[in-house]
Amino acid sequence: MRLGAALFLVLVVRCSPEVFAQEAAPASDHTPLPILTFLDHVERSANFEPAAKRFVRQAWERRPADEKPDSFLPEALAVLHPGFKSALDALGEERYAEAARLMHELTGSDDPYVSWHASVFELKALVHQDMTEQGQVLAANLSQHLEQLSKLTYLAGEVTYLAGYCQLQNLHYAEAYDTLDGFAERFPEAPERLRMMAAQMVREILARQEGGLGDVSDLMRYAGRELGHGQWGEPVTSKQERTVALLDKLIEAAEERENSARSGSSSGGRGSGAPGSQRQPGSHAQQSRAEGGKGRIGELHQAPAARPGEMWGKMRPAEREAVLQPIRESFPGRYLELIEQYYRELSK
């Protein structure tokens, strides 16, 4: 996410000494309360140079009336606190690990505006790195202080959105639904993209089919992500075990449907020599299907002591195709590569 701090700092370079010498205009009666309290905080602080104080106030007064105020606070903090500017630059330049580290250091700042903004931007940096387990912990802590966040930042809605996002990425579907349902009504001033994305995630949660291939995909994505971060214990191992169990269940169900279909066709009154059972030269089958044979499809489930991936690795290509064919006929094609890839990884 690109931030506006760099653009704000361009204004500093372009302002002449005469600008800083001008008297600051009083804040407008239409100035939002968080901005009023921030400007008062800056004015009263002994930690900022007079020129910086004047510039921050004048920058607010010169903002277009139709420009939303939410970006002003982090931009102003970047002017007042060099350390915050460095952290904000790292985030804007997609140096997310560095940004998370720098922002975390700033969470202990004596300036409450810096500490709360740094906490939220640390959360953003974690999410950008797909570190949603750590992000969920931080978001849960920040969610307990939404009232304070609403007074000192414009980020309360974003914290709630990121909390729900982390919960969903970590497969806590019910918690994510509770967090995101009604998001637009609770945070009408949140950016439109967040309101739209929250609504989309709620729709996806409601459309979820528990125990289906969507869950398999989610579990595999979660395990791969956490393994990439060097996480090998719980809850990764439990997710892997559930993935294998779901895949076994889905494959068994596909095999049962295939066997039922074959039984139905064989008892339909037409043998192999019945009239019309053979296609004329040049005709085409209406639907491709695997021919019956002596494939050992059932052996995948007859040895419960063996790992599914181990059995998959021992099967010949033709036998693997015999397993995948009924799945191909029953499920969307985009899942097939995912399933085979997972079994291939297990067999290593």
Q: What do these coordinates show?
A:
- Helix content is 65%, strand content 0%.
- It is an all-alpha fold and 348 residues long.
- It has a domain at 209-261 and 302-348.
- α8 (112-128) packs antiparallel against α9.
- The protein is elongated and about 90 Å long.
- The chain starts with a helix and ends with a helix.
- The model is unreliable at 1-28, 269-309 and 330-335 (pLDDT under 50).
Please describe the structure with a list of short key phrases separated by commas or semicolons.
mainly alpha; disordered N terminus; 19 helices; 348 residues
Outline the fold blueprint.
Layout: H1 5-14, H2 17-21, H3 33-44, H4 50-61, H5 72-80, H6 82-92, H7 96-106, H8 112-128, H9 132-143, H10 146-152, H11 156-169, H12 173-180, H13 183-186, H14 192-207, H15 213-228, H16 236-266, H17 308-314, H18 317-330, H19 336-346
Helix pairs in contact: 1-5, 4-5, 5-6, 6-7, 7-8, 8-9, 8-11, 9-11, 11-12, 11-14, 12-14, 15-16, 16-18, 17-19
Number of strands: 0
Q: Provide the helix percentage.
A: 55-70%
Count of separate DSSP helical elements: 19
Global morphology: elongated
Uncertain ranges:
1-28, 269-309, 330-335
| Oligomerization status of the protein chains | single chain
What is the CA-atom radius of gyration, in angstroms? 29 Å
Strand content: under 5%
Termini separation comes to 38 Å
Biggest sheet architecture: none
Task: Output the helix-strand order.
Answer: HHHHHHHHHHHHHHHHHHH
Average pLDDT rating? 77
Question: Structural class of the secondary structure composition?
Answer: mainly alpha
